[in-house]
Automatic annotation (TrEMBL):
The gene is mreC. Residues 113-255 form the Rod shape-determining protein MreC beta-barrel core domain. The keyword Cell division does not apply. Involved in formation and maintenance of cell shape. Residues 257-286 are annotated as: Disordered. Residues 261-272 have a biased composition (Basic and acidic residues). This is Cell shape-determining protein MreC. Pfam families: MreC. It comes from the Bacteria. Belongs to the MreC family.
Amino acid sequence: MLLALVASIMVFFLDTRLDYFKPVRSLLSTAVYPVQAAASLPTDLSEWVSDFFQDRKQLREKITVMEANNMLQNIRLQKLQSLERENMRLKELLGSSFRLQERVQVAELLTIDLDPFSQQVVIDKGENYGVYIGQPVLDATGVMGQVTETSAVSSRVVLLTDPSHSIPVQINRNGLRAVVTGRGLGEFLQMDFLPHNADIREGDLLVTSGLGGRFPVGYPVGKVVSVEFPQGKPFADIKVEPAAKLSTSREVMLVLPGEKIQTERTTTKPAEESSSTTEVDSGDDN
């Protein structure tokens, strides 16, 4: 035991101080490594499989979350684009209402009549909002039609293109009066009862004449796109393109009854007051 203890101390001293057994230790470590690797292989394999499937699960979850976020952003983008377009249409309506002399009320389309022989729409304003039968309906560019039926919360509007609808107009260039009638879906309006010698040209703007008492004077109705004089017929064949965007407008304006907006009222009153004051002062001086 003493000899073994002395030999162990000597080997320990030679290994730690002189690295005498380093080549032997390296050789033994190389020989033992396969055994160590084989012993740790089950644990390493189980950890790798666990990490592999866990990473795939996390990756799938991330992909699912990213796809959901992408879809949500696309929906929000579409809604934003829709709101931008609606805002632009409302701005057009607002600008148009400032150009008009009458008071107007904004309404929105609810449904469209799918009957090809009846050009009618339903709006979200009714008798509760003061809508009445015969009330003119416009969009930002021109006359769309007039109200034909009303309920408490909605109304039905007949469009210019309806075959049963006619509107009195006049040529903006020379004041010549005529009547424009609808011809159905996808067709131009027809100007009726103008003789061959009538002073009308392609490109003439047609506006409401005010006859009949339904539509106030001066609202755009359409533009003449063709003028033909067929042989054997007493009247010219005149086609008119509607000024209103009948197939795309969603917001419309209802012309309210009553007196016109007096835009110059605020400017005329001070002038009248100043003139009256001047007269009083001149009287005092006399």
